[in-house]
Specification:
Elements: H1 2-10, H2 12-16, H3 24-32, H4 40-51, E1 57-58, E2 69-71, E3 76-81, H5 101-123, E4 128-133, H6 140-152, E5 159-164, H7 170-177, E6 180-187, H8 190-201, E7 212-214, E8 231-234, H9 257-267, E9 271-277, H10 286-297, H11 309-322, E10 332-340, E11 351-359, E12 373-374, H12 375-383, H13 387-392, H14 407-414, E13 423-424, H15 428-431, E14 486-488, E15 494-496, H16 499-505, H17 518-527, H18 531-561
Helix pairs in contact: 7-18, 10-11, 12-14
Organism: Candidatus Kentrum sp. SD
Protein name: DNA (cytosine-5-)-methyltransferase
Catalytic activity: a 2'-deoxycytidine in DNA + S-adenosyl-L-methionine = a 5-methyl-2'-deoxycytidine in DNA + S-adenosyl-L-homocysteine + H(+)
């Protein structure tokens, strides 16, 4: 290879005199057809990286250098370089044309230098850069090793989070998966803390290093949190608003919204995530719900001594319309959203309110992530394509078995070409597909997978169907309205979910154990945020926070270049 390169340089002058058979216009047209974005190798790299479990952003507007893949939470980027365009050294794909040698050498050398400049501009503010060459994509296994070592191998500065009302750890684990590092995790319930500590002892990676503090959030020493908090998250106790509770709202001593808002005021996190029950949006709570949202928007407009919450609501409403009292202090852009967890891949119909607020000075517009799964896609896979049954090795049902109330909906789907852009809802069968019946001897291989006797059916409580997402898991006793911790069997009977099955329905890993009774485990799981849902929301927030750094870096480069 070395002698060939020497020959090329020694004959540069002679080759430069060869005539191009194309006109300037024709040559320009052909060069314009060479794809820089969305090329075959780039698409292959995207699929590889996505399949490895890494999530990325594409071609972010205003981001200097225009890397092909951006990993905001890891402060890393990947360029997919064409070997010819960027003069990959000693590569046969970078061989120069035989005509117009001077033109090509100057043009391609300029491309190469421009690529190197982009990499320097990214590395200077602390971004890590990997270049994958077109020729390397022939050996996909080799590229996967390089990418994995690049994205996992170096410790980078993580965004900081604080979790309140942590419970069994579902929200905290989802936030950890999204790339945050916890500064404090606060939970008052002794048995929930036992669950987290047991998993810490076992070395479970997502909770191993959590700084857990057992106690009331109102008694925690918040002055000990000295670093800037990027994310504050929590699910205040839902009993004051629960459909199955006594729902006394502001009159309930368990209402932890006021303490949480005070902590937001003290720590001024860049963003907060609050999760709560659907009952919070009940018409009977409308005024108090508005009060909560306005307090979150204006945390520094505090309630005076002796002032009722209704009087304080009036003050906040005036502030909202006039801004006369606040004078530009700490405020948040608050986005409340009612969602169904099944629409995000959780094998459970679980409606919850998420309240997300970005600090106003950040200038961020944010909306809740779009659903990734749908009921229509499930119906299509069950009743039209049959893919659902094939995947589970089960016989396809006949048209006579089609639910009458869904017949028109299914028939409408059969007349269209599927273009859902979403995956099917995940069902109980999906969640439990590789776990044995708890009455089988092989079930002993699974922790928390013991059979529970005594499940009964009665009006309104018939158990979760196998081929739909589970009904909402509840933390209360047997008979709590709106859901039940049982699954329906083929013979018309029901049985309780085992703790392990319920954990799967809440997307907890099999490696996460519950060292408490079945009843207590179900209470903890019923109160938990599904891990995968927490990850989805936290990752969306992390991406928007990272974009701030991207645009700051871009602005800095523009100023320096001017």
């Amino acid at each position: 290879m070395g002698s060939r390169r020497c020959y090329d340089w020694n004959h540069r002058e002679a080759r430069s005199k060869l005539t191009d058979t194309l006109s300037v216009e024709e040559r320009s047209k052909r060069m314009s057809l060479i794809r820089c974005v969305g090329s075959g190798p780039e698409m292959k790299l995207r699929r590889l990286v996505h399949g490895m479990g890494f999530r990325y952003r594409l071609h972010i507007k205003g981001f200097t250098g225009k890397p092909d893949l951006v990993f905001p939470s890891r402060r890393a980027v990947i360029f997919m370089h064409g070997c010819f365009r960027y003069r990959h050294e000693d590569c046969k794909l970078a061989r120069l044309p035989k005509s117009k040698l001077d033109f090509w050498e100057d043009k391609l050398e300029a491309n190469r230098q421009r690529g190197l400049l982009k990499q320097r501009q990214l590395r200077d503010p602390g971004w890590r850069v990997l270049v994958v060459w077109e020729c390397e994509m022939v050996d996909i296994d080799h590229v996967s090793i390089i990418v994995d070592e690049f994205l996992r191998g170096q410790v980078v500065e993580k965004m900081k989070s604080v979790e309140l009302f942590a419970g069994a750890g579902g929200l905290a684990m989802g936030i950890s998966l999204a790339g945050f590092e916890s500064l404090a995790v606060v939970e008052w319930d002794k048995r929930a803390c036992e669950t987290i500590r047991e998993n810490q002892k076992r070395g479970y990676p997502l909770v191993r290093d959590l700084p857990l503090w057992e106690g009331d959030v109102r008694h925690f020493d918040w002055s000990s949190v000295t670093e800037e908090v990027d994310l504050l998250a929590g699910g205040p106790p839902c009993q004051p608003f629960s459909m199955g509770g006594k729902h006394r709202a502001h009159g309930d001593e368990r209402d932890m919204f006021p303490p949480m808002i005070e902590i937001i005021r003290r720590l001024a996190p860049r963003v907060f995530i609050i999760e709560n029950v659907k009952g919070l949006t009940r018409s009977s709570f409308a005024n108090y719900y508005q009060y909560i949202l306005l307090r979150l928007e204006f945390p520094e407009v505090t309630r005076k001594s002796g002032e009722t919450w209704m009087d304080h609501l009036s003050v906040l409403q005036k502030e909202k319309t006039s801004g006369a009292l606040h004078h530009g202090g700490l405020t948040y852009n608050v986005v409340p959203t009612l969602i169904n967890a099944a629409d995000y891949g959780v094998p459970q119909k679980r409606e919850r309110v998420f309240i997300v607020g970005f600090r106003s000075d950040l200038g961020i517009d944010w909306s809740f992530p779009r659903p990734t799964h749908s009921f229509d896609a499930l119906l299509y896979s069950q009743w039209i394509s049959g893919e659902y049954w094939d995947r589970h090795g089960a016989p396809r049902p006949s048209r006579e078995d089609m639910p009458k109330r869904l017949k028109n909906r299914i028939m409408a789907l059969s007349d269209t070409i599927p273009s859902f852009g979403q995956k099917p809802w995940r069902t109980v069968r999906d969640a439990l597909m590789d776990i044995p019946d708890p009455r089988d001897a092989s079930s002993r291989e699974f922790y928390n997978h013991d059979f529970q006797d005594g499940a009964k059916t009665y009006k309104g409580h018939t158990g979760s169907p196998l081929d739909l997402p589970a009904k909402t898991l509840k933390a209360g006793d047997h008979g709590v309205p709106g859901g039940e911790n049982t699954m329906a069997l083929k013979d018309g009977k029901v049985r309780y979910f085992t703790a392990r099955e319920a954990a799967r329905v809440q997307t907890f890993s099999d490696g996460y154990v519950f060292p408490v009774s079945w009843t207590e485990t179900m209470r903890q799981l019923g109160n938990a945020v599904p891990v995968s849902l927490a990850r989805r929301v936290a990752a969306s927030v992390a991406e928007r926070l990272a974009e701030i750094e991207i645009h700051r870096a871009s602005s800095s480069w523009i100023r320096n270049a001017a």
